[in-house]
Amino acid sequence: MILGITPFDVLLIVVIILLVIFTPILLRMRINSTITRSTLELEDMVNKSKENLKNLCIEKGNLDRDPSDDIDKFMDFFIVPPVDMDPSGLMKKFEKIMELGEDRFKHMADIIAPDANNEWKANISMTLKATIAINGVAKMVRHNLELSKKTGSLQILIMLQMGLPMIMKIVRAQFESTKLFSECKPIGDGLGPLVTGMLMKDVNEDDIEEIDDVVIGKSVINGVNVVIARAKGPGARIGRIGKTVTSIMEREKIKRLITVDAAQKLEGEETGSVAEGIGVVIGGPGIDKWVIEEEMIKKDLQVDAVVVKMSPEESIQQMTQIIVDASKKALEVLETSILLSEAGNKIMVLGVGNSSGIPNIVKDISKINIKQDNKKGN
Fold first, then answer.
1. How far apart are CA 15 and CA 53, in angstroms?
2. Contact (Cβ atoms closer than 8 angstroms) between residue 348 and residue 220
3. pTM score, two decimals?
4. Which residues, in sequence order, are bridge partners of residue 304?
5. How far apart are CA 325 and CA 319, in angstroms?
6. Rounded to an integer, what distance in angstroms lies between the CA atom of residue 57 and that of residue 377?
7. pLDDT digits (tens, 9 = 90+) for 120-144
8. What is the pLDDT of residue 43?
9. What residue segments make up the domains of the chain, in order of their start?
């Protein structure tokens, strides 16, 4: 014993020093290994999505060449938002940029699948969008991983690891959606088009009007004149509903608007629960919502909403029996809401969402291609 320090104390001090030195190193190795596996999984999903898209283009577009080069070049396609330092006219700039972006995707579908019909070109365009989204996430995760290695920053690794479980959860669902779009199957976000498609069950197919990927039908429900609008199906579309809906409301002298859409549920809430509210329920960047809200102020419109709640993952995964059952309940709530209007009035019902796998008129809901192995509450 020297100065009252025993050999055990010396050993303890050495162990503490080693822990202080090697704990960050071991932690970095552990986190780095986890993120590397996730990064490789993301990049594998990108490659599989591109391969799936290539096969779809060859099969449906009767392509006699490999479109892989065209697809790879388009993977870095981007849309630059307008400058927001001066907010005046910002939404109109956003609207124009998004329209140009949508036109570019349609043009790309024409290039890689020239002989495909319009419905399959819509599916190819939506599959391309989903693949680009996955590719963007994979590149960002890879960027942060390499940056942490370059700088030796443990903080970057820890922040990335904290957000990675949620990122992977959403991207895996997005990856599934690429396969669903390529097979023309419905997703959870198709709730709005499904409900409005059922509402149009008595509308003649020849009487349906089509404007900018939006279909419009007319019906009379208990004396109330109802104009029904939704994205055209069964191809994967969301439609340019802002301008189209406002032009129809102006033409038809609409006094009331009811929007039907999927809404994000809170953790603990049950998937498929139906709720009513007031306002325009339209997701996305907010451009279509802004256009309709401007019309709401000008025309002093009454605006109501019916939503079915689901998680973000469920909204981009294949539609389940729970959501189909919820769509029936939503239709009942919608029809009750329509009855609140006086007979002879003219109102509009807008089904918001992706129309993949959902025909314009849904006469038999049992023919919708839903996911069969879903368990309630899972």
1. 55
2. no
3. 0.88
4. 258, 278
5. 11
6. 37
7. 999 999 999 999 999 999 999 999 9
8. 96
9. 10-182, 188-367
In CATH, 188-367 is 3.90.190.10? no
Position 321, amino acid: Q
Tokens of 131: 């693949």
* Statement: residue 378 has pLDDT above 60: no
Would you call the peptide bond into 234 cis, given omega within 30 degrees of 0 as the criterion? Answer: yes
Name the residue with tokens 């109102």.
Answer: 347
Query: What proportions of the chain, in percent to the nearest 5, are helix, strand and coil?
Result: 55, 15, 30
Cite the DSSP H helix spans in the chain: 7-60, 68-74, 90-112, 118-151, 154-182, 191-199, 241-252, 287-299, 312-316, 321-338
16-20, 78-82, 106-110: the lowest-pLDDT one: 16-20
Tokens representing residue 57 in the block: 């283009």
Centroid of chain to Cα 241: 16
* Residues 249 and 241: beta-carbon distance below 8 Å: no
Token reading at 65: 């060449």
Query: Using CA atoms, how far apart are residues 348 and 221, in angstroms rounded to an integer?
Result: 12
φ/ψ of residue 164, rounded to 5: -65, -40
DSSP-derived 3-state class of residue 186: coil
Coil/strand/helix, residue 67: coil
Total count of residues recorded for the chain: 378
The answer to whether 127 and 178 have CB atoms below 8 angstroms apart is yes
Residue type, 373: D
In eight-state DSSP terms, residue 2 is B
The model's pLDDT over 182-202, given as tens digits with 9 standing for 90+, comes to: 999 999 999 999 999 999 999
